[in-house]
Amino acid sequence: GYIGLPTAAMFANYDHDVVGFDVDSDVVSQLQDGAVHIDEPGLRAFVNQALDSGQLTISDEIVEAKYHIICVPTPFDDEAKEADVSYIESAGEAIVPVLREGDTVILESTVPPGTTVEVLQPILEQSALSAGDDFALVHCPETVLPGNIITELQQNNRIIGGVNGVSTEAAVRLYESFVEGEIRTTNSATTAEFV
């Protein structure tokens, strides 16, 4: 997606092995062929650099990983007067079969306060693992604007809020690899959602 692809390429271009996943098989096929479907300055070259290096692969399956980063839409439902979090629910359900002890799940989508703990956490805990104890759970909202995404991913300040301190620190270690802006932390995912 619009945030997920640049984020995946950013991590890959900073020497992380990344598997990008999308539910749209056409998007997966295009990206596997090196065709970038998003119109964003510099993105095509940035993604192809990650693909050519072998650090980024595109898959139609979610795989086991140390970090699972959820970047899905949360469109505002005008009728219900609230954000539609169904994509987050689906992403969480898809991660459950591959979630392992010691993994970290990071929600980057813009969400109403409480979503990480009240919506995503119960879904992930269907794995029989406990958030904060067995796996880290974090909210780290993306803060970029179209037209300058690559630069803003690196240079913007970030807020990272986990369900506990261990979760927060697990995410900080990852984002420190490329974020040049200030990384602020809180041991509350809900506080990060408010920010």
* Oligomeric status: single chain
Mean pLDDT, to the nearest integer, reads: 96
Main sheet overview = 5 strands, mixed
Helical content, roughly? 25-40%
Secondary-structure element order, N to C:
HEHHEEEEHEHEHEHEH
Fraction in beta strands: 15-25%
Class by alpha and beta content: alpha/beta
Q: What is the approximate shape?
A: globular
Describe, in short, the structure shown.
37% of the residues lie in helices and 17% in strands.
Question: Would you write up a description of this structure?
Answer:
This protein has 195 residues and is of the alpha/beta class. 37% of the residues lie in helices and 17% in strands. It contains eight helices and nine strands. The protein has a five-stranded mixed sheet, with helices on both faces. Helix 1 packs across helix 3 and helix 4 runs parallel beside helix 5.
What topology does this entry show?
Elements: H1 4-13, E1 18-21, H2 25-32, H3 43-53, E2 56-59, E3 67-70, E4 76-77, E5 82-83, H4 86-95, E6 104-107, H5 115-124, E7 136-139, H6 149-155, E8 158-162, H7 165-175, E9 183-186, H8 189-194
Parallel strand pairs: 1-2, 3-6, 6-7, 8-9
Antiparallel strand pairs: 4-5, 7-8
